[in-house]
Amino acid sequence: MTPSSEAEPVRFALGLEGQAQALRLLPQIFGGGVAATAGVLGAGWRAELRAGYIAPQAREYPTLTVGATFDLWTVGAAGCWEPQRGRLSFPLCAGVEVGSLRGVTRTVEEPGRAGAFFAGLTADATLAFAPIPRLALTAGFGGVLSARRPLFHVRDQDTLFEAGPGALRASLGIEVRFR
Fold first, then answer.
1. Which of 42, 47, 59, 74 suits 105 as a labelling partner, its CA being 20 to 30 A distant?
2. CA 120 – CA 114 distance, rounded (Å)
């Protein structure tokens, strides 16, 4: 038995996007970062490996001049259903991400560093427009729900920061597709 010559071939894609984050995985209500993806695309589906970084954000104790700066590195995987119409596609994805939520103390005599394991469940929807077959411009909206919420404190003080229950994310990016 031989495969049909009409079956759409599996393609590969690499993407890069800028992200805006709202709500709270890090201390501030709004933040920004970058993400990269590597994916396998089929007829109406895709699977992706993802990596992301949310830029550092500061937090201080209200009554002290002691604080820390926090950032978040993640890696993850997602599976997507991808309806297509002409040059447009609409990936609807669900996945998981794990990473390191890191804190570095500031304004203390002996600065310290701490890292904690982060885990979350993700869901997102993207609009991809391919003006040419090998290039797509993307705009997406999604969220992450924290499965593990690390908390940080400086020495014997109360909690300085605890990761929020989740965040909303918006993104703009570019994707290069290969056959």
1. 74
2. 19
